[in-house]
Amino acid sequence: MQNLFLIIAVFGMVLAISLFARRSANRYSTIFLGSFYAIFSIYALQTYVIESGLLVEYSWFYVWPLPLYNLISVPIFFYFLTLIKDEFVWRWRYLLVFVPFIIGFVDVLNVYAKPQEVYDAIVSNAYLKPADRLKVRYGFLNINQHYAMRFLWQFLALISLLPLLLDFLRSLIKEKDRKLITWVVSLYVLFVLMSILASIFAFEKLLEVDFLRSTAPILHKVNFVFYLVLFAIGVMPIYFPSILYGYPRSKKSNTTLTTPTKEEEELKFGLDVGGLMNQLDTIKERGSFFEQDFDLTSCAKALEIPTHHLSYFLNQQLGLSFSAYRNNVRIEKGKTLIALGYLDRNTMEALAQQCGFANRSSFSKTFKKITSMNVTEFSSNSR
Fold this sequence. Notes:
By secondary structure, the protein is an all-alpha fold. It folds into two domains: 2-245, Rhopdopsin 7-helix transmembrane proteins (Up-down Bundle), CATH 1.20.1070; 262-381, Orthogonal Bundle (Arc Repressor Mutant, subunit A). The chain has 19 helices and no strands. It has helices at 2-21, 27-51, 66-70, 73-85, 99-112, 116-128, 143-160, 162-175, 178-207, 216-235, 262-269, 273-286, 296-303, 307-318, 322-339, 342-345, 348-354, 360-371, 375-381. It is elongated, with a radius of gyration of 28 Å.
């Protein structure tokens, strides 16, 4: 079972690095989700170290992570909040989510303010008597009380978001965004299960009752479910790679007489407008648009964004589908070549292939649609 925590730790850190490193349509939600997986990874790694009996070798890896673990409900809360609202606006009431972190921080400072022998005794006790390590008091609370408070806070934070989440899901149902619905519901349910199961274990030990330990089969089943939930949280993003980029939320806007500024557009769409336009120009210069197999997927891969983000961007910024945008780029090249006398030395078939079309028929048809004249008429007028 210890190896499971090591696997979770590796997956968590890889996800955290990926989320922090990539450009995102929804910057805040991606950062918060990455923060959760970073904490989650450190938590799983420390559990592996303790359960595997490696704490003596890595005695430094014990007391200090407590405030970090108590912070775990914060990125979860803000991830869902920013995903739902598509923005991050600080409210002072959000300080309530930080209560476990503040208490944990004070308790850890209390430990480190004492002589080194105190820390050594805590680590030694955790190694020699692992069953009693949760009873050690750092300051205001003992470890088990911190554990109970941490996951109870996570549960309360998630429940406080439920009304907003239900409204959000209703809007997604109307938009028929099934993938995002599946991701949000799955992650929320797993987080709730995680907080409930962990809280049950904590309060059982805290109150010294045998609610789950009364029968071994129940304990094993609950343990299995808890570990399964942790593993699912760690690996689930593999099936939802789009979360590495965040989700752009298209909003219905009222018609106004004012033109939004570039800064407002970038905030609204959640994408780096100028940066993407520059990248598209670079791709044009490389000639990728004139390759016959250069499609939406190829372009999105070159831009390092998901295909639905690219479609969203082109539609919102240029009012074009990817196919229409690509055809415009190709026909512009065709017009340039014709003006330079390309057809004086080459066939129409060669011109079509130079511009990325499979044959002269599709080139001629697209050319007429975009320029409102056929190739011959344009050639005559350009002389």
